[in-house]
């Protein structure tokens, strides 16, 4: 391949994607946030550590800053948190061309639509991934669970050929002709799990018990919301999906609980916030979701974290 693949964001997911590309010999550039982050990487000889089941691989990667060069970016994976997407993209906007293609890996919804609006001439693809990873250090990622990535174009076009690179990198991915319902279903699952884990500081497995009698009405509201967005599944199916994710990830900390523990800004605005705003626009009454949103915002404020 002649064009390098750029990855914006060196969080756990960005590192996991960069590691798999580096391992496959794909020319991949990891774009870092600031000069301090770059120095930290250079001090470690730009070596990325990928840990999986007790084994650690050392992988040399190419790191750069958004303004390190004027080289055009044609294929860009955006792996920042949802709230950081807009700022991160502005930092590299001058390097994007009319034919650049962007892949968004964020949780929730809102950052994807904002990016499509900001970059109307570029092809913006949306993705949902179930890979589990966390960072042990700035250059050290632990691959906790092998998942799958669903990718699609909100304009419902076929997959671009360059995505074959992902297969070359050993990334298990599938093209979804209609990606928005996939993202909505993931958002509903995140609305049912993440806020409860953050409020009660509990692992995913304890969610139904901690939510108590409000859990069923919460799922019912999410089901109505999904219906209003054209996502076709029954309440029973949604309930089963949520419970099977809870079981499969019972011992895990949700991404929101991890953010709270790390004193980081959460993605509340792109998960519950987006759900409540969309419900209002659709004229739906969602008292349980609204009150959960309010409780979580109060909780975050008490912890000194942004409520959005
Ligand atoms: O996606 C997740 C997250 O933590 O954000 C779930 C599915 C809840 C797994 O933890």
UniProtKB/TrEMBL annotation:
InterPro entries named in the record: 6-PGluconate_DH-like_C_sf, 6PGD_dom2, ApbA, Ketopantoate_reductase, KPA_reductase, KPR_N, NAD(P)-bd_dom_sf
Catalytic activity: (R)-pantoate + NADP(+) = 2-dehydropantoate + NADPH + H(+)
Gene3D superfamilies: N-(1-d-carboxylethyl)-l-norvaline Dehydrogenase, domain 2 (1.10.1040.10), NAD(P)-binding Rossmann-like Domain (3.40.50.720)
Keyword GTP-binding: no
Domain Ketopantoate reductase C-terminal: from-to ranges: 178-297
Enzyme Commission number(s) from the entry: 1.1.1.169
Pathway the protein takes part in: Cofactor biosynthesis; (R)-pantothenate biosynthesis; (R)-pantoate from 3-methyl-2-oxobutanoate: step 2/2
Example GO BP: pantothenate biosynthetic process
Top-level taxon of origin: Bacteria
GO molecular function, one term: NADP binding
Keywords, ordered alphabetically: NADP, Oxidoreductase, Pantothenate biosynthesis
Chain ranges of the Ketopantoate reductase N-terminal domain: 6-154
Annotated GO CC locations: cytoplasm
Family: Belongs to the ketopantoate reductase family.
Function field: Catalyzes the NADPH-dependent reduction of ketopantoate into pantoic acid.
UniProt xrefs under PANTHER family: 2-DEHYDROPANTOATE 2-REDUCTASE, 2-DEHYDROPANTOATE 2-REDUCTASE-RELATED
Protein's name according to its UniProt entry: 2-dehydropantoate 2-reductase
Organism of origin: Halopseudomonas bauzanensis
